[in-house]
Amino acid sequence: MHPFDVAVANADTNPPWRNFIGPFGGLTAAQAMRAVLVHPQRLGDPVALTVNFAAAIADGPYEVIAQPVRTNRSTQHWTITVRQGDEVVLTGIAMTAVRRDTWAATEVEVPQVPRPSDVPLPTTPARVEWIKRYEMRFVEGAFPAQWDNADTGRSLTRLWLRDNPPRPLDFASLTAMSDCFFPRIWLRRAHFVPLGTVTMTVYFHAREEDLKQTGTGYLLGQTRGQGFRAGYFDHTAQVWNEAGTLLATTTQVYYFKE
Amino acid sequence: MHPFDVAVANADTNPPWRNFIGPFGGLTAAQAMRAVLVHPQRLGDPVALTVNFAAAIADGPYEVIAQPVRTNRSTQHWTITVRQGDEVVLTGIAMTAVRRDTWAATEVEVPQVPRPSDVPLPTTPARVEWIKRYEMRFVEGAFPAQWDNADTGRSLTRLWLRDNPPRPLDFASLTAMSDCFFPRIWLRRAHFVPLGTVTMTVYFHAREEDLKQTGTGYLLGQTRGQGFRAGYFDHTAQVWNEAGTLLATTTQVYYFKE
Question: How many Å lie between the alpha carbon of A6 and the closest alpha carbon of chain B?
């Protein structure tokens, strides 16, 4: 069994997915998404997921609850809660839908970048465990080479990304990989501050056939910060496959401490 | 009393805010935000709000319920539900926080545009009632002059926007105005299709003092679609005040029918 399959189904301590504090948020978001995906009443495929991280998850078991609260003819609305003991640690809402072919266009431009095999792997050691679960090849905007507090004025990152070891893409792993961007403020400021994601939204442009077509191939991720102020900052991001199909667009807000 | 104050506090039919079907979604989102804002247990100011529109609201009363589900030292997490009769018509989650001064930067560039007084009001009549509640001055990407099905390849809109009549900005009205962009697919295709927002997320960069400073001034909105496929499309957007302060960033997914 692939490590992601083991972890995404295990609402308990997952040592290989440790972050600075608690598990990698992308794994928790994927568990939230999976709770919808495996629900016997699910209608259609994911269109949108938003999760708010209310507190760090401590070691030990927790509970991921997805509930369909409104089912229409071709759409369904979900609430998601992760509880640990008596406490809420994540709130979420999602929407799934039966999707049909229509006029289509991708307006956000696919960046012109070298192929994955032409982009080297990072040589810096992983600071946290979960990073090792992904193969990340930074095309632009890797971790600062020097943490010298020089405001670079720019927080754009582009990278090739896939599961390590490779694994066929599905909606749960796409959710997790939508959270693989390192915090924009570290790149922008070349300054290390403690932080964490407080909310993440993923919009799924991919349908089942796009996931199949992507298979174990690389994803191309692009992200940039928008505004940094009063302890919080946001980013927008896009995720394509190697064929240039837009799979997901995603946004986050992080808190940071000084 | 200003029409927005009347409507935002009235969880019932609001004829001046009618959209094609049901009320203007921005008003409903503002009512969801307001339910948090007026809650006696609220801690801090809004950081993020996501609302999923599960069904059109019919004429008649409905109920807007905000519940704090996790309160930390300086942050608070909310679930929001709008019910009409026995049915859920909106699900939402929000986060509020006590915010403190930190290092700050705005990375998304403020577009260089003419001043509001130099941008004419539209001459085309409003198709729906709620449009009249806003003064919209399109700098770029107004409604198509001809609905001729010519794919323009571009769905960028920039506009100056304020309440009509003017009203001092607050978090509820900023939420509503974050939904004032007309659907990107109409601009992109110059083709009219039935549609509606299914999810909207607003990230609040503005603090109370930014709202005060903005007062009754104009907001500068910018939006562009990212991906259009299989009955759904998304956009990202930014909202600044006249002084160039980034007040909010926001994203949406719409469904559309062909």
Answer: 29
pTM, to two decimals: 0.98
Tell whether the torsion through CA atoms of A52, A251, A35 and B197 is positive or negative. Answer: positive
**Rounded CA gap, A40 and A245, in Å?**
30
Give ipTM to 2 decimals. 0.98
Weakly modelled stretches of chain B, pLDDT under 70: none
For residue B146, list its beta bridge partners.
none
The predicted-structure confidence for A74-126, as pLDDT tens digits, reads as follows 999 999 999 999 999 999 999 999 999 999 999 999 999 999 999 999 888 88
Q: Are B75 and B96 in contact (CB under 8 A)?
A: yes
Q: What are the E-state strand segments in chain A? A: 45-53, 63-71, 75-84, 87-97, 105-106, 134-140, 157-163, 195-204, 219-229, 232-241, 246-256
Which two three-digit tokens encode residue A159?
């990278």
**In chain A, % of residues over pLDDT 70:** 100
Q: How far is CA A257 from the centre of its chain?
A: 22
Please provide residue A122's backbone torsions phi and psi, each rounded to the nearest 5 degrees: -65, 150
Residue A235 DSSP SS3 = strand
From residue B118, give the alpha-carbon distance in Å to each of B139, B159, B160, B181: 9, 12, 11, 20
B205 inside 8 A of chain A by CB = yes
Size (chain A), residues: 258
**Residue of A109, A72, A159 whose CA lies nearest to B198:** A72
Which H or E element spans position B21? none
Interface size, chain A vs chain B, as Cβ–Cβ contacts under 8 Å: 218
pLDDT at site B124: 84
B207 touching chain A per CB within 8 A:
yes
Comparing alpha-carbon positions, the chain B residue that sits nearest to A152 is: B107
Give which of A50, A67, A187 to mutate to test B binding, by max B Cβ within 10 Å: A50
Short-list B196, B249, B200, CA closest to B220 = B249
| A38 in Cβ contact with B60 (< 8 Å) | no
At residue B35, the pLDDT reads: 98
Tokens of B105: 């930067």
Q: Which of residues 25-44 of B touch A (CB under 8 A)?
A: none
Question: Taking CB atoms and an 8 Å cutoff, what residues of chain A touch B78?
Answer: 91
The pair of three-digit structure tokens given for residue A3, joined into one six-digit string:
């490590």
Grade residue A146 by pLDDT with cuts at 50, 70 and 90: confident
CB atoms under 10 Å from CB of B102, counted, come to 17
Structure-token match 């107004």, residue found: B142
- How many CB atoms within 10 Å of residue A63? 12
